[in-house]
Amino acid sequence: MFRLIILFGVLCSFGLSAQINISYPVNRQVFQRNNSNEASISVLGNCSDKTEVVQVKLEPVVAGQGTLINWTNLDTKPTAGFYQGKVIAKGGWYTLKIRSLIGTSVKDSTTLARVGVGENFIIAGQSNAQGVNRRSEETGAADDRVICANFYNWYSDYNVGTNAKQLNPQNLDFPLTEFSQLSSKASIGPMGLSPYYWANLGDLLVQKYNVPVCFFNVAWSGTALRNWIESAKGLSSVNPWEASLSYPKGFPYANLQRVAEVYGLKNGFRSVLWHQGETDTNLKTNQETYLSNLKELISLFRKNSGMEIPWVVSEASYISFINNNGVGCKPGIINTAVIQAQRDITSLKDLMQIYSGPATDDVEIPRKSDDFSVCVHFTNESFQTLGNRWLSSISALIAANPTPILAKEMPQFTKICGPSNELLVSAISNFKQISWMKDNAVVSNSFTKLALKPGNYSLILKDDLGFEFSVPSIQITTMPIPTAPLLKASGDTLFCEGKSVQLTASLGAGTYLWNTNEKTSSIISSGNGTFKVQTISPDACTSAFSASIQTKVFANPSSPSITSASPYFLYGGLKLFDVEFNWELNNAALSIEKNTYLRVKESGKYSLYASKKYTPGPTCISPKVEFSYSLPADGGLSMYPNPAVNMATIQSVNSLKGAEFTLYAHDGRLALQGKIDEDGAYGLKVDGLSNGLYKLIIKTTNQVYQRTLVVGN
């Protein structure tokens, strides 16, 4: 199988990838419509890496020549520098427009002038199908929608057309870029010598069906049916007109097979148009042999191509020769056995989708004897008749609604990032083999997750039969790496034990991945740590990490405990130097009370918590403890122990600082007198006093207290 690597369109260099282009389809390519008058058109091309959406528009070239498809999304995720998609179009002749969008703004656009959904035909047989050597004046198709594959792959002496791409003889690298209008200067590749009557037929088909028509011509002048059979088997077949000569091995059949491969997979076909029999009349081929050979040829072609393509078989056998004196033509010969075989082939029960073609033995009789007609070929005087007859036969074929051969769709490419953000490309298709090409060398035979560096790549896919399906050269760049997200904290990142802070990532497109392996947009930190996050795009591309945020947790001080130190004082326990005690009464802060002891002046619910200020950092507090306190029923002054032996402790609900005390014996004698210099608990020494009853008088700034004190055991 020949390797076909076709470059579609003019691609920008790697540094100019911003300009959008269309790599596929190619100008004037016609896609075979199905029986619902539709075809799927694959579209492929390059675009800017920043493109967010690629849209397509199919606009009839002329009003009424198709159904408008207004701007619609073709690829909503074009990445790695190229886009692809497909559009289902009705039969018609269109201008295909492509544009790229970033957001809602159009950034770039391009146009393919002509693309069609219509009918494709392979012409096969001998010279009255191939056409005669080009005359000085030819008549091409009038309608722009009549198309041909305009190239020639045999000896240039046989086709002096200057408008056709000339391939070397037996070159089967048929181009997909040489479609043109079937003008008077065009050739119907690969073997058509001139427009012949096919241009007229094209105009008639376009007028009737209002869709474009494209022809491919593999007919070979002078061939007998056995030449097609033998070459289909890979043999070198003897020329029926000169026994010393043979056709190149595999020809003429090789052209038919290759056209089916190159254009059948890309364009699709309605049918083969077979016009042959003149040489078999000269060979006196009998009915049984011709029928058997034609059946074998069709069967071999269908088997070799994997295409159940319909055939339209004309009734053709007429042949004549120039008189010996070089003037005029000898009486023509018709082989009724060949004609009957051509009729019988359409009704075989084991060979389906064979249809009757036009009968041409009665057209332009007698034929002309000039150098072009040589008593057997048609002239332009008969082209209208031949066109109408072929139109009738093809119309009957289309009315019978056989299943045409439809174009294969381009592989569906998926593009994702690998672990190091390298581009991984997969090609999803029904083909069995794949070859990725770069610089004419195979770089991979993998369908899935192929790591590709930037550059121009083409693909060759093969089906079960080894038929090649080429994917045009596309420029592949790198995957877009998402922007690193922003990371914000909901509060202070320095916090106390038992607290937390929420960290939230934003500006990411896709999912998030934290250095702690969480995958949510927000996480909660309740301890020490350094946190950062990156974005993972839907294509598995990973951004750089965000700026990091560090969180730190500070220990809460130990919880105090409240005990009653004495009648008017509560005790909170030991306190470290950097810790403050915070007292509350009935849940209201006693703001100035920060020490371990608290003078209590009223009954109620007292509570206490410890606090510690970290620099830098927060102020952390301990759990709160509570204590229910009731004032003693002593009138606001408490004295204990009573009786006292050595010392009596005096406490008051009010401050004792500056208070004066006087102690009298029971007989009125002054026993002790003094001044209390500090607040709190005052120790009154009575160890030098005689046992007995005493009266104590304490005068504060705003209060006088009297108590009886017993001294002694």
Descriptive account of the structure:
- The N and C termini lie far apart (128 Å).
- Helix content is 12%, strand content 36%.
- It is built from 8 helices and 47 strands.
- A hairpin with a 2-residue loop joins strand 35 and strand 36.
- Helix 2 packs across helix 8, helix 3 packs parallel to helix 6 and helix 6 crosses helix 7.
- The strands form 13 sheets. Strands 1, 3, 4, 6, 7, 8, 11, 12, 14, 15 and 16 form an 11-stranded mixed sheet that branches.
- It has 713 residues and is mainly β.
- It folds into 5 domains: 291 residues, Rossmann fold (3-Layer(aba) Sandwich), CATH 3.40.50.1110; 70 residues, Sandwich (Immunoglobulin-like), CATH 2.60.40; 69 residues, Immunoglobulins (Immunoglobulin-like, Sandwich); 67 residues; 75 residues, Immunoglobulin-like, CATH 2.60.40.3080.
- Highest CATH level, the class of the largest domain: Alpha Beta
Oligomer type: single chain
Q: Percentage of helical residues?
A: 10-25%
In the CATH hierarchy, what is the superfamily of the largest domain? SGNH hydrolase
Main sheet attributes: strand count, strand direction, barrel closure: 11 strands, mixed
Number of domains: 5
Structural class: mainly beta
Count of runs of 4 or more consecutive helical residues? 8
Low-pLDDT segments, ≥5 res: 1-18
The CATH architecture assignment of the largest domain turns out to be: 3-Layer(aba) Sandwich
